[in-house]
Write a structure and sequence with these properties.
The complex is a heterodimer of chains A (699) and B (350).
Chain A lengths: L5 H14 L2 H8 L7 H11 L1 H19 L30 H4 L2 E6 L3 E6 L4 E5 L2 E2 L4 E2 L5 H5 L2 E6 L3 E6 L4 E5 L11 H28 L3 H10 L1 H14 L1 H4 L4 E2 L3 H5 L7 E6 L3 E6 L4 E6 L15 E6 L4 E5 L5 E2 L8 E3 L7 E2 H5 L4 E6 L3 E6 L4 E5 L17 E6 L3 E6 L4 E5 L18 E5 L2 E5 L5 E6 L14 H37 L1 H16 L2 H14 L4 H15 L2 H15 L2 H8 L4 H9 L4 H25 L10 H5 L5 H6 L2 H28 L8
Antiparallel strand pairs in A: 1-2, 2-3, 4-5, 6-7, 7-8, 9-12, 10-11, 11-12, 13-14, 14-15, 16-17, 16-20, 18-19, 19-20, 21-22, 22-23, 24-25, 25-26
Helix pairs in contact in A: 3-23, 4-13, 4-23, 7-9, 8-9, 13-14, 13-16, 13-17, 13-20, 13-23, 14-17, 15-16, 18-19, 20-23
Chain B lengths: L1 H28 L4 H12 L9 H19 L6 H9 L19 E2 L4 E2 H36 L4 H15 L2 H15 L17 H39 L2 H8 L4 H39 L4 H10 L3 H29 L1 H6 L1
Antiparallel strand pairs in B: 1-2
Helix pairs in contact in B: 1-12, 2-3, 5-8, 5-10, 5-11, 6-8, 7-8, 7-10, 8-10, 9-10, 10-11, 10-12, 11-12
The chains are: A alpha+beta (699), B mainly alpha (350).
């Protein structure tokens, strides 16, 4: 008996005085409490801390996976983004360094990192600065740059170009594709170091290649299944033979920039593209260099000297000539349909322009925006379906400044309003209201926008913060794919388990209850199924299915059925055994004597008594089915890309280069898969223990 | 005992026939026609000779060729039972020739341009070698571990082992493989991440063996680790059951040493479920080695099977599938026989 406090004792007396003391008496005699079997099970289960914790994790995982997708309206399976491939987990893509915050001169970005320049001429780099397998950290700003006063910076996908006040052109980052040529010892040393760290992997890759030449087909298959593999080996191939590839498809950096200086006062624009850089001078002279493979029309620009503006889309360089009547690309038919807003129909360029001239252009990855001589804007190119149209301007309001990111534009109007439009998938267009009226300048790059006031301090920033779990080889957010993939994995596991449970229960009940011929036939069938080697058989079935012409959803459903049909035998045998025992019980005899039909006895009287054991098997089988689905998808025979599951998200990691360099592509997915399976197994195991009346607690 | 074994063998054959028929049906679901491909290839080879032939003549010629190939391969009928019997080699084809599995004609690999038997030989050797090695390693570790855990049931060490083993058997094998590659290859740099031998080397004898072991070490370690969890738990559970038997109490009561109680009284009783498990597990790893072989780039059956599936080389696939089925059936037979040997009651009831 518990010791009661004073008030408890007092209330006890009062109660006994007025209502009699029978209940207290019963308590004091210490009669054993009667607990229902289910109550006992729950109580025993709750006593085990590990199991309760596991249960909570499983429930949380379920909630995350099934309700998480509701919070990701912009997600779709086949999302790819070239400039965001293999980005390490970071949330600092928009985190302007404190030194820069109140002294911003310019900010630029193209891929996963941003570069900023302060009014005092210092350079800052932030974001995901580790550049893939190259081993280069772009935030290691060369000392020469730190010591010099910089007045222009621009960022490409994996390099940064800076121009100092004295006209010296600096470059750092990757230079495998001719992004820059440098004589700076420090930069060269860093590149060498990076190469050394990569060369080990080269060795490994070469070994791998040597070992697999016997089986060229399978390697090919792997590569087509996974673009990353081919790409990373591509990159390292280039590294191994830098000398050989140099000059082939590269427009080299002009010699006068490498060794000499540039007339800073005369620079009109410095802009970086994918792996290219262009410097446009006021007199129309253009310096352009970089990877010619990235831009097909780069050769048309090399000796151009009548340009007034230039910018890079993803695949083309676009410019405006002195005439200003069309966009110069060096190719016919590119960007010659203009429209006054994104959601409006295009018109041919001559018709649209009339007598107006193009003054400047701002290019995103697949579309561009130009400003006309009368201050209005026009758009050209392909707009993805998620593009938000440009908000209407008030009467008499004009655009003062405009900047382009990877898919979006940010502009400042004459009334001090800040507008963002264009691609909205990564929140690029969510302009905070506080920036209106205070902003004097806007910067946009990649998926971020920054608003700066007249003192050069940051007023607001919006856009992509980063990726919690990084991105995969297609540039998709791994966190979102994990949630979506979890939904798929768990759904497949659940449906497969339900199918196998239904078959198992029906077969087990029938054969256990009726016995005789039915029993023999059903058990022989079960044995045939049990003799089927599981994984190979599932493989061959899904391979056969892949040959047939059926829709993706149907394939997934058939996959669930395959998993279900191949796993029911264990449960059927167990149910049969239990039914055999239960059949001899008195209540069954009683039911029989009362004339209850046989089928009803089997399913209504016996089944509820063996439900606990079914429940345990169901839990454990669920984990097994999830694992099997993952294994199949990992091997490339279950659910295939672009639909994510935890298994096929890991199939790209079947490669030591990725395992080492892109750790985030397998670590998080593995953790989710492993933790879910471990927790489900712990719950199932504990359930089995607590449901078994014979098992002692400490077993 | 003899009668019992015969009965089991007869039963096994029936299942084998049923399963192989099932497989054959699935195999025929694939829109992949050997006779058609061959006829097409022949037509292409004779292109120059048929330059002047009209389309009709070409069609006629193709049809003839197609029929001929179909007759040769025994697919000139839509009756699946007949086709199956021909495939097995129990029925002659159109020309009265028996050419099926029983005659040793296992088909032809179009991808590798060789008879399936030759294609499968080397990978099979590798797979069996790895699996047997991994089994020995795993048994050597798990059985003592399981026994120790059972004897010291409830101790700190046992509880820790329980958690470790549950993690071990819940981890998907490919995750373990990735993890181990990361630890041993990327971090420590001890083992090569994949492959069968040093590229370009041509060792023989002892040197060959050392090189082979160096490359096989990581897959073996991973395979062993993956099987530790479930095996240890199983051994422990059956050992606990055995230790709670009345005969154990009697043995202890009459003063038998603890060692003798554990290793001769309890262990013999725990053996029956363990035997089932060991054999079943040994069969399981043949299927499971699919994943290891792809991850580690081992030229084994699993890898061959997957590459054949990818290239739709179904003659190879079906033979390997049959091998897996046969292995699993033989395994079941072994389980039954060993049961009979270990547990006299089984023999009597059969």
């Amino acid at each position: 008996m518990k010791k009661k406090n004073f008030f408890g004792r007092l209330s006890g007396w009062v109660r006994r005085v007025f209502f009699g003391g029978s209940r207290d008496l019963a308590d004091s005699i210490d009669v054993e409490e009667v607990v229902s079997p289910i109550g006992q099970i729950v109580r025993n289960f709750l006593e085990r801390r590990l199991a309760v914790g596991a249960m909570i994790v499983v429930i949380l995982m379920f909630l995350l996976v099934f309700f998480g997708p509701l919070f990701m309206p912009n997600y779709y399976d086949s999302y790819t983004e070239v400039t965001q491939k293999n980005v390490a987990p970071t949330m600092s893509m928009m985190k302007v360094p404190s030194g820069l915050k109140n002294d911003i001169k310019m900010i630029d970005s193209y891929g996963s990192f941003s570069v900023g320049l302060s009014n005092s001429g210092d350079v800052y780099v932030w974001g995901a600065t580790q550049l893939g397998t190259t081993g280069i950290d772009i935030s290691d700003i060369p000392e020469a740059v730190e010591n010099d006063t910089i007045c222009y910076v621009a960022a490409g996908i994996d390099h940064i170009i800076a121009i100092s006040e004295s006209g010296k052109v600096y470059g750092w980052g990757s230079n495998k594709h001719g992004q820059y040529i440098t004589t700076d010892k420090e930069v060269l040393e860093q590149l060498e170091e990076a190469e050394e760290s990569v060369s080990e992997e080269d060795q490994a890759i070469l070994e791998e290649a040597g070992a697999t030449t016997e089986d060229a087909e399978s390697v090919e298959g792997e590569e087509s299944a996974d673009e990353e593999v081919s790409e990373s080996s591509d990159e390292t191939d280039v590294a191994a033979s830098t000398a050989a590839s140099a000059g082939e498809n590269i427009i080299p950096m002009p010699d006068e920039l490498v060794n000499g200086t540039i007339d800073v006062a005369n620079i009109k624009k410095l802009v970086c593209g994918y792996q290219c850089t262009a410097i446009l001078m006021n007199d129309g002279k253009l310096y352009i260099w970089g990877n010619a493979n990235a831009y097909q029309n780069i050769s048309s620009f090399v000796d151009k000297d009548d340009l007034t503006d230039i910018d890079f889309t993803l695949n083309y360089i676009v410019g405006i000539t002195d005439a200003g009547t069309s966009i110069y690309t060096g190719k016919r038919g590119l960007y010659d349909q203009y429209r006054s807003n994104i959601n409006e129909a295009g018109k041919s360029s001559k018709k649209f322009l009339g007598k107006r001239k193009i003054v400047s252009i701002y290019a995103t990855n697949n579309h561009l925006c130009g400003m006309l001589s009368d201050g209005s804007l026009f758009f050209a190119g392909n707009f993805p379906s998620d593009s938000v149209a440009m908000p209407a301007l008030h009467d008499g309001e004009t655009i003062v400044q405009i900047e382009a990111g990877t898919y979006h534009y940010t502009a400042l109007t004459s009334e001090g309003r800040v507008l963002s439009w264009g691609g909205s998938t990564l929140k690029q267009t969510d302009v905070p209201t506080k920036v209106d009226g205070k902003t004097a300048k806007v910067f946009a790059g990649a998926f971020q926008s920054y608003a700066v006031d007249s003192n050069g301090s940051l007023v607001g920033k919006w856009g992509l913060k980063g990726y919690l779990f990084g991105t995969d080889g297609y540039g998709a957010d791994i966190f979102q794919r994990i949630i979506q993939g979890g939904k798929m994995t768990m759904t497949i596991g659940a449906v497969a388990v339900i199918i196998s449970t239904i078959i198992g229960i029906v077969v087990g009940c029938l054969s256990g209850y009726f016995g005789g011929t039915v029993d023999i036939v059903l058990m022989r069938i079960a044995e045939v199924f049990a003799a089927i080697p599981f994984l190979p058989f599932a493989l061959i079935l899904s391979a056969v299915m892949a040959q047939m012409d059926i829709s993706e959803n149907k394939k997934i459903f058939i996959l669930m059925c395959i998993l279900g049909v191949l796993t029911w035998t264990g449960l059927a045998r167990m149910v049969r055994g239990q039914v055999l025992v239960a059949r001899e019980n008195e209540y069954v005899t009683a039911a029989k004597a009362m004339g209850v039909k046989e089928g009803r006895i089997a399913f209504r009287h016996i089944l509820p008594n063996i439900v606990s054991i079914i429940f345990v098997t169901l839990t454990l089988d669920f984990a097994t089915c999830m694992l099997t689905e993952s294994s199949l998808s990992y091997l490339g025979f279950g659910v295939t890309y672009p639909r994510p599951t935890w298994g096929n998200m890991l199939s790209g990691s079947n490669n030591s280069t990725i395992i080492k360099n892109y750790w985030w592509q397998w670590v998080f997915t593995s953790i989710f898969l492993a933790v879910t399976c471990i927790c489900i197994n712990i719950v199932g195991d504990t359930l089995r223990d607590v449901m078994d009346p014979k098992s002692d607690r400490d077993k | 005992m003899g009668k019992y074994v015969l009965k089991r063998i007869g039963y096994m054959l029936v299942v084998l026939v049923v399963l192989s028929f099932l497989l054959f049906l699935i195999y025929n679901l694939v829109p992949n026609n050997r006779a058609y491909t061959d006829a097409k290839a022949d037509m292409a080879a004779q292109k120059t000779r048929l330059r002047n032939a009209s389309d009709e003549e070409k069609d006629k010629m193709f049809d003839e060729m197609y029929l001929e190939y179909q007759r040769q391969y025994g697919t000139d009928t839509n009756n699946m039972a007949v086709r199956y019997l021909r495939w097995v080699g129990l029925m002659p084809n159109y020309y009265g020739k028996y050419s099926g599995l029983l005659q040793g004609d296992f088909g032809y690999s179009y991808e590798l341009k060789d008879d399936v038997v030759n294609v499968v030989k080397e990978p099979m050797k590798n797979t069996i070698f790895i699996n047997i090695f991994a089994t020995i390693l795993a048994l050597g570790i798990t059985i003592p571990l399981g026994i120790v855990c059972a004897v010291h049931k409830g101790s700190k060490g046992d509880q820790a082992m329980q958690v470790i083993t549950i993690i071990g058997y819940s981890l998907p094998t490919f995750v373990t493989a990735i993890l181990f590659v990361w630890i041993f290859c990327s971090l420590l740099g001890i083992f090569p991440p994949s492959g069968m031998k040093t590229p370009g080397s041509n060792y023989t004898g002892w040197k060959w063996f050392v090189d082979r072991m160096y490359y096989m070490a990581l897959p073996l370690i991973t395979m062993t680790f993956c099987s530790l969890g479930s095996m240890t738990r199983y051994v422990r559970a059956s050992m606990i059951d055995a230790l709670s038997l009345d005969c154990i109490r009697t043995a202890r009561a009459k003063g038998v040493t603890e060692k003798a109680v554990i290793y001769s009284h309890a262990w013999r009783n725990a053996l029956i479920p363990i035997v089932t498990l060991v054999v079943g597990w040994f069969l399981g790893i043949f299927g499971g080695s699919l994943i290891f072989e792809t991850t580690f780039g081992i030229n084994g059956m699993g890898k061959l099977m997957i590459s054949s599936l990818r290239t739709q080389d179904f003659d190879v696939v079906i033979l390997m599938q049959l091998f897996y089925v046969a292995i699993s059936l033989i395994g079941n037979l072994i389980i039954d026989i060993v049961y009979g040997l270990v547990d006299p009651r089984v023999r009597v009831s059969a």
